[in-house]
Design brief:
With about 400 residues, this protein is an alpha/beta fold. It has two domains: about 10-210 and about 330-390, 3-Layer(aba) Sandwich (Rossmann fold); about 245-315, formyl-coa transferase, domain 3 (2-Layer Sandwich), CATH 3.30.1540.10. The protein has 18 helices and 13 strands. Helix 1 links the parallel strand 1 and strand 2. Helix 1 (about 20-30) packs across helix 7.
Length: about 400
């Protein structure tokens, strides 16, 4: 079956995570993604480890499938010529060089590229954007997690602020960039014109505040660090069974009734202190210790089996190894396996966008540095002698 972005070309001039994650998603949707990397060095995440597998960073391997690597010195005149040739017929350009002066020196500023290709979708990813008092400041995931307010409410009430262990600001920015690019491509179908996207880590991460922001903006209530409990729903949290932790999400009165029936808790079901979610929230300090004591008496599987057919959302807190071996992932083929030229089979997490008519595809393993340089240059019309000359000049 065809993929939705088949015959689309994406030029990826990004490093680290937000940009590469975006372009990997576009590659999964069928785009021909050409990753521009500095000769001899490449994407900075190639050096982020351990672990390394046959010299390749596991970090890099996780976010760079479905791409072709072209090494190119974009500071050189010859390198910029190659890049401009690529962009002249490309559909999307993704860049995370934060400073306008640097983009101009590299010949990848908006004006230059739009003049080359008015249909180009130009996506700029940065910490804070191209306008405002923080424009062009460097940005990293950890800074965005802190400055966007999420770390202030992550962790135990009496503990220190905590970062999420996965770079969620980068990943979120990559997701919003992908959404924006797809929207811009759809708009281009109607207008024939490209446009510029200005996507930031700060705004992408701050957008996650949603109901927390609303609590303050509309309710005048400053959110506090609560650990694993839900500020509005009870019981909706982590409990410790005899052998491991489990999660329960009793989000409605019907589910509360089913919860009490399944576990034989008639005394709680009929207790007016816990009759409604509002009551349970008000009397949380009286209810939760009772449930804590109950769950500690049996292993997790015992409780999960009792709750299995109740309709109450519940589950264990699994290790990463447990998750990767999850029968649901296996049944839906969510672990991707691609053949790498140095490593052999390389596995990564799949793309969760399941399309019935134009499904995602997994074609290329994460490339070794410059793996496709000669191939891409040949497509641009360079013969072997011209490619050899570029190599000799260290342009590629």
């Amino acid at each position: 079956m065809a993929t939705i972005l088949e015959n689309m070309r994406v030029i990826d001039l990004t490093q680290a995570l937000a940009g590469p994650y975006c372009t990997m998603l576009l590659g999964d949707l069928g785009a021909d993604v050409i990753k521009i990397e500095t000769p001899g060095a490449g994407d900075q995440s190639r050096g982020w480890g351990p672990p390394f597998v046959e010299g390749e960073s596991a970090y890099f391997l996780s976010i760079n499938r479905n791409k072709r690597s072209l090494t190119l010195d974009i500071k050189s005149v010859a390198g910029q010529k190659v890049l401009h040739q690529l962009i002249a017929s490309a559909d999307v350009f993704v860049c995370n060089i934060p400073k306008e002066s640097s983009r101009r020196r590299a010949g990848v500023d908006v004006e230059t590229l739009q003049a080359l290709n008015p249909r180009l979708i130009y996506c700029l990813i940065s910490g804070y954007g191209s306008t405002g008092p923080y424009a062009e400041r460097p940005g990293y995931d950890l800074i965005a997690q802190g400055e966007a307010g999420l770390m202030s409410v992550t962790g135990e009430p009496d503990g220190e602020p905590m970062r999420y262990p996965i770079p969620i600001a980068d990943i979120t920015t990559g997701l919003y960039s992908t959404i924006g690019i797809l929207a811009a491509l759809l708009a281009r179908e109607r207008t024939g014109q490209g446009q510029v996207l200005d996507i930031t880590l700060m705004e992408s991460q701050s957008a996650w505040l949603t109901m927390l922001a609303s609590s303050l903006l509309n309710g005048g209530q400053e959110p506090q660090r609560l650990g694993n409990i839900h500020p509005n729903i009870v019981p909706y949290q982590v409990f410790q069974a005899r052998d491991k932790y489990i999660i329960l999400a009793v989000g409605t009165e019907k589910l509360w009734q089913a919860f009490c029936d399944a576990l034989g808790l008639e005394h709680l079901k009929n207790d007016p202190r816990f009759a409604t979610n509002k009551d349970r929230n008000k009397n949380r300090s009286e209810l939760i210790p009772v449930l804590d004591e109950l769950f500690s008496t049996q292993p997790a599987d015992y409780w999960l089996e009792k709750l299995k057919d109740t309709g109450i959302p519940n589950g264990p807190i699994d290790t990463i190894a447990d998750t990767l071996a999850h029968p649901q992932h296996r049944a839906r083929h969510f672990i991707v396996d691609l053949q790498h030229p140095l490593i052999g089979p390389v596995k990564s997490m799949g793309n969760p966008v399941n399309l019935s008519a134009t499904p995602v595809s997994y074609r290329l393993a994460p490339p070794i540095l410059g793996q496709h340089t000669a191939e891409v240059l040949a497509e641009l019309g360079y013969d072997e002698a011209a490619i050899a000359a570029l190599r000799e000049q260290r342009v590629v």
